[in-house]
Amino acid sequence: MFKKVLIANRGEIAVRIIRTCQKLNIRTVAIYSEADVDSLHVKHADEAFLIGKPPVAESYLKVDTILEVAKQADVDAIHPGYGLLSENARFARACVEAGIAFIGPSPEVIERMGSKIAARTAMQTAGVPVIPGSDVALADEEEAVHLAHKFGYPVMLKASAGGGGIGMQLVRNDEEMRKAFAGNQKRATSFFGDGTMFLEKAVENPRHIEVQIAADHHGHVVHLWERDCSIQRRHQKVVEEAPSPFVDEALREKIGQLAVKAAKAIDYRNLGTVECLVDGEKNIYFLEMNTRLQVEHPVTEEITGIDLVEWQLLIAAGEQLPYAQHEIPLQGHAIEVRIYAEDPVTFFPSPGMIKRFTLPEGEGIRHEYAISEGYKVTPFYDPMVAKLIVSADTRGEAIQRLDRALKQYEIEGIKTNIPMLKQVINHPVFQAGEATTAFVTNHLKVKTGRNP
To answer: Could you give the subunit structure recorded for this chain (predicted)?
Structure first.
């Protein structure tokens, strides 16, 4: 096992990784920007290094600087967390070339799955169903219009690189396509350095179901059941739960086997997530594969009792998976909500000083955060400041527990999305387990805002 790990990330996920490392007696090294000097991940790590100014391009994305710190601190491995450099093949390759273990899949797999077009091709070759669409980059808006007629409107116009809904838009006619193409291409180029666009037939009102997989270096691949991530705002997940209330035993077995098949097809190693859309007839369509730990991983931990960060470390260290497929538990129900520093009406970011931060306590309540009273939320980073996870024997009990916890959750000094979360979990459609990806648009009395 590793002796010292550098965490190439910030905030709550860095704190989360530190917690598991401490459990395994692994020393930790944190990196931080000038804006994060008071973050809990800096205080909890064994060592911490200032690496630059607040903008991520001048700190958390500086590959050469991070590797210099890793060498100076004499670490065995680097954990990228999620976001930032976690799916950056250049960074993964640089770690390997420096003789430092990268806690994640190989650079080649990251590169391949980082392109949605390449991922579609790989899955089709493996016999994993994909949404009908273009398998090569669109040359221009006229080609996009032509193919949209071939598949039939509505279609989803998508950026091949990146994620988070950036460069993605539902298009219903030629006029919308011509308006959307240039803007989406420009946005994708700005965020990902790659304006490659493609399109898929729109699957309207689907469930967004994803499967957690794990694969070691000894040929073993397992799945750890599914998560339902259908509650989204502009393709950004807001509420996640496991298991899915929509998935029955037959579908659970089928989607789990497809996820394992997808991982084996690309010779995957470490943890990953196979994301799918499932329509009302329970047809499964591969959407993408995330080659990292997910924000919503705690709900899987709660229903399995498995520490997923520990599994990442074990696999990266060359050890075998602790469980075979038939040994992985599935017990109870868990729900996670993301607490964002944002205006609950416009959804614009709400930076400011945390004046009061009081968390509910009790059975089945879990928190992930890296803020405290006196901490300043800045506009430089993703506005998610914390996660609230609840677990119980049944879904109904979990919803009741979550409702009580949200009523007791107190953050003063900034605006948050907690009012929206209360609306979600108390809505009869959500409580009945019938929410699709159109839930926020169709059922909530809030504006959907726009991506900041």
So the answer is: Acetyl-CoA carboxylase is a heterohexamer of biotin carboxyl carrier protein, biotin carboxylase and the two subunits of carboxyl transferase in a 2:2 complex.
